[in-house]
Design brief:
The longest helix has 19 residues. The protein is built from 12 helices and 26 strands. Helix 2 packs across helix 4. With 575 residues, it is of the alpha+beta class. The protein has an 8-stranded mixed sheet with strand order 19-20-22-21-23-24-25-26, sandwiched between helices.
Length: 575
Amino acid sequence: SERLAVAAHACFDGTDDGLVFSAMLLPARAAGISACLNRRTLLCHLPSLAAKSPVANVLTPNDFVANFARVSADGSRLAYACAPQPFKSHASSMQLRTRAWPPRADDGARAGDSARADAASDTVLLPTSVIGESTDGVDCWHGFHDEYNSLCWTGTSTPTLACNALYRGQMRVYLLEPVEGGAKENAHVSVGSAALRVLPPGRCGSTKLLTAHGGTMMLSYSSYTEPPQLWACTASLADASLPVGDARRWKLRYALLADSAALPAPRRLATERAAVLDVLRATRRALVRLPEEQGGAEAVVLLPPADAETEANADADADANTGGDADAPPRARTPWVLRPHGGPHSMSADAFSVETALHLSQGIALILPNYRGSLGFGDSFLSSLLGHISEMDVDDCAHLTSLALRQHADVLDASRGGVYGGSHGGFLTAWLLASRVHQSLFACGALWNPVVDLPAMYSTTDIPEWCLAEALGPDAPLVARWPLEPEQLLELYARSPISKVDSVKAPCLVLLGDSDMRVPPSQGRTWVAAIESLPTPAPVDAVEYPGEGHALGGAEANAHAMQTALQWLASHLRE
């Protein structure tokens, strides 16, 4: 069924003439690849670009996914991410492997036995998933993912790799040094690695590896309340006599190169930016977590200072010429918005977001959940959602919201809450508004390119197998098939929020890209039409952006959609 190959993630092979790259094998129909790792992907080597008839040799014939290859500076090692077995979720944990380089036999007509022999000598630096509280060990590795991960060899005297990893809502950078010896794992020598977390001093948010040259790594650092900073970190071996794994073996030197919060602002925006930065500095954060017997999901709660909403309302009143009083006393409690991430196999990351900053500056608290199915909490947490969307994820979001309202009842106004999500987050928003069990929590909801009707989406999206995996579970086919069985269609419909749309009572805002191939705009249009068809319809507004895709990624459309959603939510959450 695989009829198309797409090359990706190419790098030079240690020479000026050869390439190592990934080849994604795709079905002829519905070949969506953006943010989709669950495609058969082969690691290939093209020894010579100048050859008369170039032939690429497969390096990983027996693995489901192998990608993101990097050759060490001295040309002696190859590192790559690998998933040996097929998986149904669009993102998954992946091993980090290295092997000797160049390959043993590379004459343009590579024998399968030689390829398997090279693969059998691989070193698994990090297994599929490592989860724990160790400060020195890598807590979770999820392989290559466009939004989160990077991998670089560093040019130190000792062979090391720098990589990104995910752990409980954080993006982290680690320096990995191989540890000799160890047991076999999946027929590969699992020598393991000693990991040293790379984090600028005095910081506690997320770091992202941008690149590395020599022994210097370039890092981006930010948090929910700290705008991005650019750091350089130089790693040097401090005491080679110490055992691998001893943090004192390495010395890390940090230098702050740029801080976006300190950069000069355009004069007309200087006052507003200073006010937003003041709100961010004064914002408090808290963590709420469900018991393990309830799944162990957690959420970060961001609580803006008490006067942020008063000032925002005063500005809004002044703009509307309603005579608002900027000196009015602060409100007793704060409005809030639940902001579930999409995916569903993604995560709410402790990293700066303009949208988050804007909500906080308007005096709106945020509840940012990592429900079951999110990345960074281990394989079982991720895979537990397959076949259980509309149950686990919806319940987690609702229960985390209720827990946040109970634990912060002195700050959060339970009667002034909304929900706002895009893609699968829009699916969750629709379900929370339609659920007779949970809908009383929310006064309004905004949906950004939402999934609402799985049977209809199955035949119109570029990733139809997503519908099957998430709704039907691990037994669903890896590749989409037609026709579906009647019971499969019934299950897809039962897990779709459109099946309960007649229960929606709260106002809705729907934001759509009319060229979205991932979640076609017909999904959101159906939601609007269904609500408007009800005998007593809830208020519903819709905005559609011509030529825009799933992310509404055009600069003007994205800014307009973001501001529209914020203003709409703020207007519905004001007393």
